[in-house]
Specification:
Elements: H1 10-42, H2 46-73, H3 75-80, H4 86-108, H5 112-143, H6 149-160, H7 166-174, E1 198-200, H8 206-218, E2 225-230, H9 235-244, E3 249-256, E4 261-267
Parallel strand pairs: 1-2
Antiparallel strand pairs: 2-4, 3-4
Helix pairs in contact: 1-2, 1-5, 1-6, 1-7, 1-8, 2-4, 2-5, 2-6, 4-5
């Protein structure tokens, strides 16, 4: 996220941050699930492919598609009603249709290689789509003097049937401290987990990096894990992970610089 967002009041600024952080969490979740599917496909493990594909489809049907429909009921109509937003929203709606079609293809796929290709295409499109919402749609709404983004966020949660305090929770996650290091289990020289999916955080903009990682970690099943590649020793992140989920993850360093730090996160089995 390399753009400057200017809000007319603190409530709208908080709402915009909550939307962006939630988008990042969704991207992290989808990234890890797709990476698990790609890894299983590359190993030719049919059972693992079936399980990973089911996880991708379930999350898309339960979270991604409902989120898109809720945006169409809340954020999109307001932006479409403005001359400067009409073409943008038309494009976003077209992308929603393409995303939904890709999810449908995944849900009916019987070919594991084709399913992996479709899942990767879905991840690329979803990531690009979220970037447009963050960098084009939100600033348009924030710049409109007659639009209250905080109210629109409330409508979005209402369309999802979500708790009205969800945006406050997202803000709390976004604003947790960066100093210090929480309790975590670290060791060196250990090998990667058995086929754990990987997330390269070096490609994620700094402002949404932690939210993206949290979304990925939230999708790790009990007894499972993931490998994170970071551009520096992520001690503040480890403190936040421990604060969010005390004792849930065992962390092991696989590489300590100088250009990349690789860590394995393993979720407790119970």
């Amino acid at each position: 996220m390399n753009h400057l967002v200017i809000a007319s009041n603190e409530a709208d600024a908080r709402a915009a941050t909550a939307v962006e952080q939630h988008h990042a969490e969704m991207t992290g979740t989808l990234t890890l699930r797709v990476e698990a599917l790609l890894a299983a496909t590359s190993h030719g493990d049919a059972a693992a492919v079936h399980a990973a594909l089911a996880e991708v489809v379930a999350w898309c049907e339960q979270d991604l598609v409902p989120h898109a429909l809720a945006e169409e009921e809340s954020l999109y109509p307001v932006a479409h009603g403005r001359d400067e937003g009409r073409l943008l929203v038309d494009c976003m709606l077209a992308e929603h249709r393409e995303i939904t079609d890709l999810v449908r293809q995944l849900s009916t796929s019987t070919d594991m290689v084709r399913a992996a290709a479709v899942a990767h295409a879905l991840l690329v499109m979803f990531t690009s789509h979220q970037g447009k919402e963050n960098e084009l749609l939100l600033p348009l709404l924030l710049a409109a003097p007659d639009v209250t983004v905080a109210d629109l966020l409330g409508q979005l949660h209402g369309a999802l049937g979500a708790d009205s305090d969800a945006d406050a929770d997202a803000d709390a996650d976004a604003g947790r401290g960066e100093a210090g290091c929480g309790d975590h289990s670290c060791s060196c020289g250990e090998v990667d987990g058995p086929g754990y999916p990987e997330l390269d955080a070096r490609t994620v903009p700094h402002a949404i990096r932690h939210a993206t990682i949290f979304g990925a970690l939230d999708s790790v099943p009990a007894g499972g894990g993931m490998v994170l590649t970071a551009p520096h020793d992520p001690l503040p992140l480890l403190a936040q992970v421990e604060q969010r989920a005390p004792g849930v993850f065992e962390v092991a360093y696989l590489q300590r610089g100088p250009e990349a730090w690789r860590l394995r996160f393993r979720r407790a089995a119970v």
